């Protein structure tokens, strides 16, 4: 605490309105603006939650602050992330006389117009720039305002420790619509690209990502996939990433997206995006994976009003376990195969120990009439209550046309121990393409009961070796069978 005193003194009574980055050795400590409690020494971050000893290159009382407090300094150019630099200037030492240069460095924005909305993006990016390689970045408790896109894709061997709240602005929707970074997939884009290698980002159950999603929901007015509406966090061209203990509230669009990445583990996450207006939360998926492999998703609780965990094209070796989803599209492979000229492959996926409440579907596969394959997928120990149409497979999602022309094979798929209640009288509806019938489907311990009693129907079409699949089909499933029903059939 004491070593920050000169800084506080220099600022006079005013608290800094913007975050401040202090670098000590390979560690950057970021304290949010307008929060006196955040003006703490890094000693207050429990050592167990740090990867490095921040004191290793500093020496307590003797510390000195290098800072730029020039009141004449002009405002930075708005919208210039990373425009910060270091402007070292020795402060008088408490003991008088000149102090030796210290390992501590500090950077913070030059004075801005008092009317400017607080934007901590430059400081956040500065911390990533200074400590994003072989370093640690600690975001202290408090609120960080993010008004600009963030591209932190050159990280290497970094531990990111977040104790505070990141709030993405929504009073500048036009900015986001035109500046979100493309993630190429289906024209989608993102507010934050995170990539590189050997990255851990931990929130200790305290980090909160607030996307101000209600504003996005209200301006989107139930439309799907608005161009430029940003995914909250995209893991992009990354290897060896561990993300843990972060909570999302009101995401702008999908909460997370994993693309062109390998060996990504995401554990103990909570997400909740629920509209409180007449407009619905749509396209607020928990996560989507695409062109990625070796992914572990464990212990998530998600309320999202769209797909909870969605495995898209060219994903392989994905293990999802211990996930609870409310108001969602649950566990899903797809959509894939939208471009028949570009095959999509999904293989080696396990979803297990999943609980679902009030979902559209439970354990399902959705493809367009395209090319590629889905193979070796297991849905195991899935329990649910009040799911519209629990087991669902379609070869022609959304259009429900051209269903029997799909060449996208669906093979070696297991549904084991799938139990719960369906909202209507259909437990399973499976329409495979007659041109590429589903093969090697295995069902065991399927116990799905309609909420209103009676027995549930099992509708199937174009399943090879249906008799030995373990599924007792009660009738055919037309290609036009919708993803969700509005009543008994
Ligand atoms: C990773 O960075 C830490 C400093 O944060 C350093 O001590 C360690 O040697 C680095 N590891 C490798 C493999 O470079
Ligand atoms: C993100 O930054 C990297 C450099 O770190 C750059 O190569 C890449 O083009 C940037 N991406 C976007 C979308 O601007
Ligand atoms: C996968 O990433 C984790 C970090 O999440 C790392 O500890 C592990 O060594 C990586 N595995 C491989 C095979 O690189
Ligand atoms: C699972 O995640 C919740 C937060 O959603 C956390 O409280 C709990 O400790 C986690 N369980 C394990 C075993 O990490
Ligand atoms: C999600 O948020 C909504 C609205 O704030 C709330 O009603 C609901 O209980 C939350 N869900 C969970 C699982 O916390
Ligand atoms: C599984 O989820 C439950 C309920 O959220 C949680 O209490 C438990 O810690 C989780 N276990 C693991 C291994 O993540
Ligand atoms: C999937 O991977 C295949 C083969 O690597 C590639 O041809 C195809 O373009 C990829 N599909 C997508 C949608 O990226
Ligand atoms: C099927 O996927 C599981 C889980 O990823 C994997 O362990 C198994 O080896 C795969 N089987 C085949 C035949 O590839
Ligand atoms: C899933 O649950 C079963 C039964 O409770 C347990 O034996 C298994 O270890 C769990 N799997 C995972 C990956 O947590
Ligand atoms: C079936 O799944 C439930 C959770 O839905 C689990 O409690 C039970 O142990 C599983 N049964 C078997 C035989 O694995």
- The CATH architecture designation of the largest domain is 3 Solenoid
Distance between the first and last residues' Cα: 68 Å
Overall body shape: elongated
Strand proportion, as a percent range, falls in 35-45%
Class based on secondary structure composition and strand pairing: mainly beta
Number of DSSP-assigned strands: 27
How many discrete structural domains?
2
User: Helix count?
Assistant: 4
The fourth-level CATH homologous superfamily of the largest domain is Single-stranded right-handed beta-helix, Pectin lyase-like
Helix content: under 10%
Classified by CATH, the class of the largest domain is Mainly Beta
- Unreliable runs: 1-14, 35-103, 111-115
As a whole number of angstroms, the C-alpha radius of gyration is 26 Å
Taking all residues together, what is the mean pLDDT? 85
Largest sheet: 24 strands, mixed
CATH third-level topology of the largest domain: Pectate Lyase C-like
Query: Could you tell me which ligands this complex binds, including any ions or cofactors?
Result: 2-acetamido-2-deoxy-beta-D-glucopyranose
What does this structure look like?
GO terms for molecular function: galacturan 1,4-alpha-galacturonidase activity; polygalacturonase activity. One of its GO terms (biological process) is pectin catabolic process. This is galacturonan 1,4-alpha-galacturonidase. Its main location: secreted. By secondary structure, the chain is mostly beta strands. The protein has two domains: 2-56 and 66-105, no CATH class; 123-468, Pectate Lyase C-like (3 Solenoid), CATH 2.160.20.10. It is built from four helices and 27 strands. It has helices spanning 5-10, 121-131, 173-179, 213-220, and strands at residues 20-24, 27-31, 104-107, 133-139, 143-146, 150-162, 165-168, 181-182, 189-190, 192-210, 230-231, 233-249, 256-259, 262-272, 287-290, 292-303, 309-311, 315-326, 331-336, 344-359, 363-367, 372-387, 391-394, 409-422, 426-431, 439-450, 457-461. The longest helix is centred in the first third of the chain and has 11 residues, at 121-131. The chain binds 2-acetamido-2-deoxy-beta-D-glucopyranose (10 copies). Residues 26, 52, 134-136, 157 line the site of one 2-acetamido-2-deoxy-beta-D-glucopyranose.
